[in-house]
Every structure is written in C-alpha cells, then in structure tokens.
Specification:
Elements (H helix, E strand, L loop, with lengths): L1 E6 L3 H12 L4 E7 L2 H11 L3 E5 L7 H10 L7 E6 L7 H7 L3 E4 L4 H12 L7 H14 L14 H11 L4 H8 L3 H15 L4 H10 L10
Parallel strand pairs: 1-2, 1-3, 3-4, 4-5
Helix pairs in contact: 2-3, 6-10, 7-9, 7-10, 8-9
Length: 221
C-alpha cells in the first residue's frame, strides 16, 4: 500500500486529492498538512512514501519543507512531488534542487496524478524531456561556470555518457536506442550512476549532469 501525505493550505484541494487517492486499491492518504511546518512534522511521524507538496503555504513554504525532508536521513525513502498552479512556476527548479522528485500542475488529469504517485515510489522522476530541458535552461540562465560534481571521477566512461544523455532529457528507452543497448542495460547504467553520485532520483541526476559540465546549454537546441 502506497502511503501519501497531502500538504496544501486549501482544504478543498486536499479533499479532492484524498477522494481520488483513497479510491485506489493500492494507495491511501496517511495524513494532511495545512502548512509546510506541519508537513515536515507529519512526514517524520507518518513516514509516507510520497508527499504531495504545495509550493506556496504559510509558516514554511513547500520549498523549505522539501529541503528539510530531503536533508533528514531518516526520511531518505520519502519522495516529494511539488504541486504548482502553473507549469513554469518560478520555484519549480529550486524545488528539484532541494530534493523534490518532480512536480505536477494542480489541474492535472486524475490518471496522471495516480501515475505520478506510483512512478516516484518506483524511483522514477516526474520529468518529461520537455520539462527537463526547461529546468536545465533555467539553471544555465542562473549559473556561472559549472563546478565538478563530487564523485564524478568514480563513474566509468559509459556511465558519464549515460549521465549526459539523462541530462539532455532522454528516457531510458531513448538512451538505449542512442547507445544501441537494451532498455534494461540503459536503466542499469542510470541506476549505478545515481548510486555512485548519491542522487536520490533521476531529477537530481539531471541537475548534477549540468552542474558537472556534462551537459551544456548549447546542447538543448
């Protein structure tokens, strides 16, 4: 059973999400938080698999709450999905860097929300290629010279190559076609790279790919 914590200051929004999630045989709502501080406290108390976190909340905003959850070693298995009103919310990129596994717009289709919850539990990041490219472009606009990522020297040449392809927004299947290997082999390379670099999920691997200089703005086309 996938346990979900809802964190949103709007009661009606939480009620809508609860009704949808609780109707699924494999998902249950473990708790609700009306502000970021309560979200962090309940995450530590309830240990949910997924936190659906609104970005703008009182007392402690979703970004700060996500950072607190991601920094807590006892909550290493908790995945945060940010909820935003607009897809290009100004805080989305900071949320990914803070440790969020992805983000969803609040008016997303119910099926997409359910797919998202199940996807992050399986270790996948909620970043489509288009979103990935926008995130990298945003980072390029805000950053100066790339700094080497810690642990990058532990990667094999193939793992560096795969990491760069992840950073440009390619899926495992697309990476497999590019390298002429099986999707399972591509997934294995991605997983090993994440382990070596200590990346929580694919979203953070994308950020590390750019920060290390493996991906450059000009590659975005």
């Amino acid at each position: 059973m996938i346990r979900v914590l809802l964190a949103d200051d709007q009661l009606l929004v939480r009620a809508g999400f609860r009704a949808l999630l609780d109707a699924q045989p494999d998902i249950e709502v473990a708790g609700e938080a009306a502000d970021g501080a309560q979200a962090v406290r309940l995450a530590r108390e309830l240990r949910p698999h997924v936190v659906l976190m609104d970005i703008r909340m009182p007392l402690l905003d979703g970004l700060a709450a996500t950072r607190a959850i991601s920094a807590d070693q006892d909550l290493a298995d908790v995945r945060v999905v940010m909820l935003t009103t607009f897809e290009l919310d100004e805080y989305v990129f900071e949320a990914i860097r803070a440790g969020a596994s992805g983000f969803l717009v609040k008016d997303t289709e119910p099926e997409e929300l359910l797919r998202a919850v199940r996807a992050v539990v399986e270790g996948n990041a909620l970043l489509s290629p288009g979103v990935t490219r926008r995130l990298i472009a945003e980072f390029a606009a805000r950053s100066r010279r790339p700094a080497p990522a810690e642990g990058l020297e532990r990667l094999t040449d193939r793992e560096r190559e795969v990491m760069a392809l992840v950073g440009t927004g390619l899926s495992n299947e697309e990476i497999a076609r590019r390298l002429v290997v099986s999707p399972l082999t591509a997934k294995t390379h991605v997983s090993r790279t994440m382990v070596k670099l200590g990346a929580r999920d694919r979203a953070q691997l994308v950020v590390l790919a750019y920060e290390s200089g493996l991906v450059l703005p000009g590659w975005l086309g």
